[in-house]
Amino acid sequence: VFLYDKYYSPELNLFDEEHDRLIRKHVERARRVLIGAKMPPMTAYDAQAKPESTNNIHRAYTVIWFWDPDCDDCMIETPQLHQFYLENADKYDLEVFAVSITEDIDRWKKTCKEMGLSWINTCYAMGEPNYDFINYFNILTTPGSFLIDKDHKIIMRSFSLDELQDFFQKTYKNSEE
Inter-axis angle of helices 105-115 and 72-88, to 10 degrees? Predict the structure, then answer.
């Protein structure tokens, strides 16, 4: 994004019109998820087909967690994140808004139940969300993770559980001093 903004100009005629359009689209998609960018509120449907929205979360921080029950990494990292959530949600004023991108409702429900996921669980298969999250957040693989604040500003993205723990330990250590 920085290089595009600083150095690129369509007037340079480096690419044909189609490639110029693709580059512009790619940069704009990347710009939306830069640290510090404000994302629009998300609304998706839970297992009872009830809409859940990030606008209704009144916590200081929300992890946006994109996952799929057919993803091997998701099946390892989701229970780990859930354990962190169970141990730290109140301590760090944290919520998790999980979005399963699967179209297999039964598998999603079964996996959520087996893992005992007690955070906000939504799924693409339950109905169209209020915008295309996969496109907006440029989700190419799962799991995909974003940490936002109460104003929907992106603080972190594509983080490991260790990085999330470090963020909260540093943030809350600094607030105690």
Answer: 40
pLDDT (tens digit, 0 to 9) for every residue of the chain, 177 residues total? 677 767 777 677 677 788 778 888 888 888 888 999 999 999 999 999 999 999 999 999 999 999 999 999 999 999 999 999 999 999 999 999 999 999 999 999 999 999 999 999 999 999 889 988 988 998 989 999 999 999 999 999 999 999 999 999 999 886 655
* Closest by Cα among 30, 50, 19 to 136: 30
Tell which residue, 71, 154, 60, has the closest CA to residue 108. 71
DSSP 58-93: -SSEEEEEEE-TT-HHHHHHHHHHHHHHHHHTTTTT
Residue 16 CB neighbour total at 10 angstroms: 8
| Residues 77 and 143: beta-carbon distance below 8 Å | yes
Stretch (H or E) spanning 176: helix 161-176
Quote the tokens at residue 72: 């091997």
